[in-house]
Amino acid sequence: MFANAPAIAANALSRRRRWAALAVLMLPVLLVSVDNTVLNFAVPAISEALRPTGNQLLWIIDIYPLVLAGLLVPMGSIGDRFGRRRLLMIGSIGFGVVSVLAAFSPSPELLIAARALLGFFGAMLMPSTLSLLRNIFTDRNELRLAIAIWASAFSAGSALGPIVGGLLLNSFPWGSVFLLAVPMLLPLVILAPLLLPESKDPNPGKVDLLSIPMALLTMAPFVFGIKWLATHGMSAVGIGTLLFGVLLGYLFVRRQRRISNPMLDMTLFHRGQFSGAVLVNLLSVIALVGGLFFVSQHLQLVLGMTPFDAAMVLIPGLVITIISGLGIVFFSKRFRASIVIPASLLFSIAGYAVIALSGGDIGAWGIAVAFSLLGLGIGAAETVSNELILASAPPAKAGAASAVSETAYELGAVLGTATIGTILTASYRSNVVLPEGLTPDQQLAASETLGGAVNVSGEISPDLGAVLLESARHAFDSGAGVAAWIGVALVAGAAIIAAFTLRKTT
After folding, report:
1. What pLDDT, on the 0 to 100 scale, is given for residue 231?
2. CA nearest 400: which of 75, 109, 123, 120?
3. Spelled out in words, what is the top-level CATH class assigned to the domain 11-191+263-433+475-501?
4. In the chain, how long is the greatest CA-to-CA distance?
5. What is this structure's pTM?
């Protein structure tokens, strides 16, 4: 379908066309990163409309980044072999169609299935965008700025998700957060064949079909095990599934080392610059997405703000995230990454400390300050780490290298919800006190999630509803202090890794 489109040699692109191509590539970056977090603000509306259980609600959020993370490496490898622009176009069309289906899902089960398909097509988009940049911008300084814009869009998209969700949900049903994909992807489908050069590995090998399910199946039990342990405590089920995921990951890595045409070149991880930057991505994104899970629900369900007002609280953090991602380019040219990244992440540590020291009793201004500090540090660190990942890989392997970078991001998104999110959920379930007089269905809904308690409070008498809301909100916030200190530890870990592994980078 796209093979007949005229190919443009990357090195023949004019300066104007290179930057126009970057503008086009920002559309799928924004879309996929927005989709990671946009549902955080739609959680109350989805809870009211579809009545999911607590477990279903977490899977509605988790299944998209889970599938996306599991398929990024396979899709990056496929793009290297068959064409990155071609894969980008197929993914764009599929993502748009499934987004419409998700918007009108009548049940939690169908919404989970639609989100899984969105992850499948989203995995075609992300490796293509970053690997195309690696081949379009051959000058290191231009590439560094292009990656800064790309990373700023990626980080800002995660921050923009709750804001866009809040603005849409103020006037439209919850399905509107999915329909957002259609107007964003239409310009991409039209302009990509005109502006983007096709690129691929000049010496591709055969696709190893066995590695594709192995990559996906490594993720699922690993994340399930973490979710189970966080919710139910130490148990044979949680430990067993976690170890099973680790075993599958080991088998995947061993296969990549032994076959002649590996899906993922494991020698990339021998470079401290590459592996250190990947770990920085993983830990910082766990902290960012986990923080968003808390603040988006706290603003709406604890402080009682409308989606629009809650979105306004997060706008300063969004702006600061974008500015820091672009502004860090000036410093990254003059100082080593082992200095720039840890210094940047000190701001994120301070942001989480604001929440931790409040013990969950924090107002809108406190949330705005904490989120701004969090975005300031992570926005800058993500720019530098992503540029290091791409610069350390040969252009022919740009798809696989970028897929690893984005796998760390998406796995971080899953683990952010699975760890910090489930700590908050577990704290809620163990601390909420239900008043007498609720029906069995109301008891189940109110005991599962804070959103369920808010819905039930509207179905009962005002006095009884007020008692339920007070207990539910206190129960939710009771875990915020613990979750925030975990966030501090994650960001501090990323800073320490950067300081020791990136000392020889330039």
Report:
1. 59
2. 75
3. mainly alpha
4. 73
5. 0.74
